[in-house]
Amino acid sequence: MAGRPQISLATVVLDCPDAHALADFYRRLLGWEVKCSEPDWVLLRCPDGGTGLSFQSEPGYQAPVWPERPEEQQKMLHLDLRVDDLDDAETYAVAAGATRAAFQPQDDVRVLLDPAGHPFCLFLH
């Protein structure tokens, strides 16, 4: 092999019970645009460019448990979202459909759950 082939991250895909419902939540939360929509898959992109966020409907989807517990569905990834005000961002996210997680491991980070149960973190930049 002559070296590393060109490889770049195009999008992160979140499995969920309803791709369109979860995409709509993140579209409102992030202010991103729908770039592609199919019956069971939606792609969002930031208007400024960068890595996209996609959603894929999975009939057998099981929401992860937060915080993790043995023998229960584990999260496989989570999103870290940089914000300028934790309280305002949390209020906005909850109004958009998020839920504040009962367990908050740090004072300077807020853990919320999206409508499909994926945890995501808000943190100050």
UniProtKB/TrEMBL annotation:
<dbReference type="InterPro" id="IPR037523">
    <property type="entry name" value="VOC_core"/>
</dbReference>
<dbReference type="Pfam" id="PF18029">
    <property type="entry name" value="Glyoxalase_6"/>
</dbReference>
<feature type="domain" description="VOC">
    <location>
        <begin position="8"/>
        <end position="125"/>
    </location>
</feature>
<dbReference type="InterPro" id="IPR029068">
    <property type="entry name" value="Glyas_Bleomycin-R_OHBP_Dase"/>
</dbReference>
<dbReference type="InterPro" id="IPR041581">
    <property type="entry name" value="Glyoxalase_6"/>
</dbReference>
<protein>
    <submittedName>
        <fullName>VOC family protein</fullName>
    </submittedName>
</protein>
